[in-house]
Amino acid sequence: MSDLSVIKSGSHPLIKHLVQLRTCKKYRQTSNAVFIEGEKVIFDLASNHTFEKLIVVEGATLPPSIRFVEKHVISEQNFKKISGVNTNSTLAATLKKPEARTFKSDENLLIFDRIQDPGNMGMLVRSALAFGYSGVFLVEGSVDYFNDKTVRTSRGAVFSLPFQEGSLQELLLLASKNKARLLIADLEGKSPESITKDANPFYLVVGNEGQGVSAKIKNKGEAITLATHPHVESLNVAAAGSILLYLLQHLLQPENSIEV
């Protein structure tokens, strides 16, 4: 392994593969792999995963605790090409893409209704995992769960929090089948503290950053909001959603909430 030659050509098949993996959802699906960039997220994942490919910048030191199938050393210029961002990191990797799953009737979920910003999605996924949610459902039109920025901002939580993708109608059928309450994050909603507690699971729905939650979902659920200072118009999706994720778990199902 220590005698690997450095990949310096930008047209090398591996470099092309990694760029495609980072930029194209369809390519990730057909390759059944996900691109990961940055020491922090790779170190977070290393304790529970063996990477398919580990990509190291020429001259960088590799921690001995990281497990991998293949190791490749590339030039700094090629690393900038595969990462797509200005970064000082020296590590990238690929992991097998997790399979989607169908959720059971006793699981609380986070629902993404056409969320577009992968940074918002990543932060919310990390919060949902931290506060004990069972998974996420992505309504068609949402940014890819394994977008490289989603992976990075979630600190790899997308590999630990199960997901399901589907149409708006499939979401409504899932909620009906599981007798789940749809709780809609909305500026015109009521206080989370006013929601009646019951034994049913609940799905917190966060909507598109510009358009909010679809009317068809709103009509089936209860709108909730956070009271804020009058000088603050609203919190962004990631901030408000993270607070609601904690509050709802704590208020509606305290036996499942995380003690702080």
UniProtKB/TrEMBL annotation:
tRNA/rRNA methyltransferase SpoU type domain residues: 109-246
One term of GO molecular function: RNA binding
Nucleus in keyword set: no
Record keyword Transferase present: yes
UniProt cross-references to Pfam families, sorted A to Z: SpoU_methylase (PF00588)
InterPro entries: Alpha/beta_knot_MTases (IPR029028), Ribosomal_eL30-like_sf (IPR029064), rRNA_Methyltransferase (IPR051259), SpoU_MeTrfase (IPR001537), tRNA_m1G_MTases_N (IPR029026)
GO biological process, alphabetically ordered: methylation; RNA processing
Protein keywords: Methyltransferase, Transferase
SUPFAM superfamilies: alpha/beta knot, L30e-like
Protein name as annotated: tRNA/rRNA methyltransferase SpoU type domain-containing protein
Organism for this UniProt entry: Aerophobetes bacterium
Lineage: Bacteria, Candidatus Aerophobota
